[in-house]
Amino acid sequence: MFRKMQFYQRMLLIVVAWSGLIAAPQAFAYKQITAVGQHTCGLKNDGSATCWGSNSYGESTVPSGTFTQISAGENHTCGLKSDGSAICWGAGKTNTRNSPEYGQSIVPSGTFTQLSAGYDHSCGLKSDGSATCWGNNSWGQTTVPSGTFTQLSAGGYHTCGLKSDGSAICWGNNGTSGQSTVLPSGTFTQLSAGYLHSCGLKSDGSVTCWGANDYGQSIVPSGMFTQLRAGGHHTCGLKSDHTVTCWGAGKTNTGNYPESGQSIAPSGTFTQLSAGEYHTCGLKSDSSAICWGNNFIGQSTVPVDSGVTTGTPTVTTKLDGISTNAFITPANKMIAGVLVSGGTKRLMVRASSVDGAVDPQLEIVTYPDRKPLGSNDSWATDPAAAELSQKKLAPARATDAAVIINLPPGLFTMEITSKNGASGAGIIEVYDMAVFP
Domains in the chain: how many in total? Predict the structure, then answer.
């Protein structure tokens, strides 16, 4: 297959994929986790969804099909399909105005880009930026104000929306806590509505919360965050180092509401989290899910793939990075062949001079049709330069090249030519960016 490349100085085959025989039960791989009441749902990498925990109203009985986003409410769940349509299941398939049948699962027509399921109401962000909510409206939580939005969050009996200009607005029940009206000033990148409190992630990475504070759920610890989730009586934030911290109820684990340990975050690094009423769940860097806190109905017991139980277990490994070097002349380039499998991979490719004699020009093309996908002459000119510096992945010299690129499954070549006509040793490195969260 690579016979045509024999005239190059060096060729290297890299498989960026999972390897090894999986014989014992393993955790499912997820790309999203969502928890609210007494059930939890996970969106798998293949687009299918699974839910566990309470199923009193069918909230954990997932309909067939694939999804791009899911959102768990108190007794119902909503899913966004790949065609932009929405479907909800569980309580609220009728609209009798008797709890829990408030019509929160009766989805209006139209296409959506984001869904949020609350206590007994649901909201959807439409393709044109407008918002619509349905279900219980006893406190005005489904009466959406005018304007366009970029994100919605349905809470207990109120809703919050992030407007196009970065400002926040909330509507619905305000009680005596001010969760819908006492909004801080500033611009936000994300909002999260809890049961009786609300929180916002500001543009500078700080978090602020307002509303109920009877368990300390609105007293934010110091630090910079990239994501936050407001739960029943607690709040959790994903910090800039990808660790999780929680505050409010559940700092102890007595097994009694609300002290069920939902704020005792486990160690490790995470990519996403979701705070429920009395439990919390997180998506770890290896795409596995973990939940902590109340587990009375199994909402914190993440399912595993028990369908593969025979054979001899072996360690599952992943190639984190690989490199090769060779001598480059003006007439002879260096090339590395790359095979990507198992889904789209976000890769960093570096082309560096070992002895300083070569000013490397990097090019990434498809094989065998040589369709250009990316190139770079100086790493500082790549759109990912800031990320390369922040993660200490930048090459040593300004003349060295580096890119971060998403590559789908297939064959590719990474090629170095000597831009200045000199001869010398060069190196090609390829890293899976999943190991640099």
Answer: 2
